[in-house]
Recover the amino acids of this structure.
């Protein structure tokens, strides 16, 4: 944790140094350019005894301009590498334009502005973190267990939840993971979650846990509570972008010829079997995300009054909000309605629906953004702050 904090502060220091250097050269480059042009003009207009001196003066002004331009280019080059505000598409544009004279001067202003935004954001975050760490605002009565969605596993070095667990722990939370299978059925994953929770209770001495589940993890958790009679061990269940009422996108995919669908599922099972799934069953697990299965599931496994339930949804603004989920978004939008790339707002609504997260900008908030998939911050939505607020509320409720 301390090593990561030190790395973050070093990155901020480097960002500030490069931004400062670029600021200087953004001023010196046009000034030296104007001086060079004035010296060359005077040299060409005056051909007298002092022409020799003026010639060297114009050469000096040219060298000064070239040094300033080279300094600006170098600072811009390194700032493009260091700044995290430049995403893949923007970086491609930057590397195409950075070599073009004049245009790269305008580009330097753009990158400088992004770097300034990143610096301000990081400084605010550091100050906020320093205050909150002392208060331990994410300390809850019961430990947290984060339950992932379909198609992923809890890996040690690649965290499904991005930067979120680290920030929760920093602010006092006890964080554990579900460790269920990527393509396990609701029933199989429920059994895994049961063993994990019983183990956490033995390890920590806690009577219960708070579950925060994303996507299909919410269905696994609901089955755990109502189907496996684990309500006495669960204080709360928070579902995020969970298809409680199924997905029309899955219904659409199930329209494929059954032979082709099963063949694709076998390929996925084989792949995730190598990654650690002991009982991968993509065919059955995917069918459990359908609208027909959801209606039956909701009747069979109602909420338990011993557990506090709450749910959240998010929405992409358009297909261009996410490069990864653009095609599923467009298909689901045509089939059903507004969605996060995989789940509609209506499907994500469940007991104590707390609202839909969205923003004013083009990107919107996708299914992956809600688990910090890209490990980056963007305007009008800070995923880490959302989870800190969520856990803080659980603590204030005595959970």
């Amino acid at each position: 944790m301390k090593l990561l904090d030190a790395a973050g502060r070093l990155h901020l220091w480097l960002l500030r140094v490069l931004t400062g250097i670029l600021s200087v050269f953004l001023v010196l480059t046009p000034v030296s350019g104007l001086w060079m042009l004035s010296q060359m003009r005077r040299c060409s207009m005056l051909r007298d005894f002092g022409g020799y001196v003026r010639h060297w003066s114009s050469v000096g002004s040219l060298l000064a301009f070239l040094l300033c331009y080279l300094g600006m280019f170098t600072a811009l080059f390194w700032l493009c590498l260091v700044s995290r505000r430049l995403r893949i598409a923007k970086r491609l544009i930057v590397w195409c334009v950075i070599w073009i004279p004049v245009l790269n001067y305008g580009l330097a202003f753009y990158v400088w502005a992004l770097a300034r935004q990143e610096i301000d954001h990081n400084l605010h975050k550091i100050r906020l973190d320093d205050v909150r760490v002392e208060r331990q605002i994410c300390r809850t009565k019961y430990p947290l267990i984060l339950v992932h969605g379909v198609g992923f596993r809890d890996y040690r070095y690649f965290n499904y939840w991005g930067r979120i667990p680290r920030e929760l722990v920093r602010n006092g939370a006890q964080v554990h993971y579900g460790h269920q299978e990527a393509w396990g059925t609701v029933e199989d994953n429920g059994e895994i979650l049961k063993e994990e929770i019983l183990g956490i209770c033995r390890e920590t001495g806690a009577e219960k846990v708070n579950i925060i589940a994303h996507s299909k993890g919410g269905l696994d958790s609901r089955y755990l509570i109502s189907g496996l009679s684990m309500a006495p061990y669960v204080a709360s269940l928070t579902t995020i972008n969970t298809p409680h009422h199924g997905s029309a996108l899955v219904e659409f995919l199930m329209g494929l010829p059954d032979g082709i669908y099963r063949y694709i599922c076998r390929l996925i099972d084989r792949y995730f079997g190598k990654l650690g799934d002991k009982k991968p069953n993509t065919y059955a697990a995917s069918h459990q995300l359908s609208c027909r299965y959801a209606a039956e599931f909701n009747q069979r496994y109602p909420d338990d009054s011993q557990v506090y339930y709450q749910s959240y949804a998010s929405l992409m603004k358009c297909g261009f909000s996410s490069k990864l989920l653009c095609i599923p978004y467009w298909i689901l939008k045509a089939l059903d309605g507004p969605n996060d790339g995989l789940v509609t707002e209506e499907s994500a609504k469940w007991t104590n629906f707390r609202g839909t997260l969205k923003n004013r900008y083009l990107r919107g908030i996708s299914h992956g953004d809600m688990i910090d998939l890209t490990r980056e911050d963007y305007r009008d939505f800070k995923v880490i702050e959302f989870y800190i607020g969520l856990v803080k509320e659980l603590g204030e409720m005595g959970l």
User: Anything to note?
Assistant: The first strand starts at residue 144 and ends at 147. The beta strands are 144-147, 175-177, 209-214, 234-240, 308-314, 353-357. DSSP finds 14 helices and six strands in the chain.
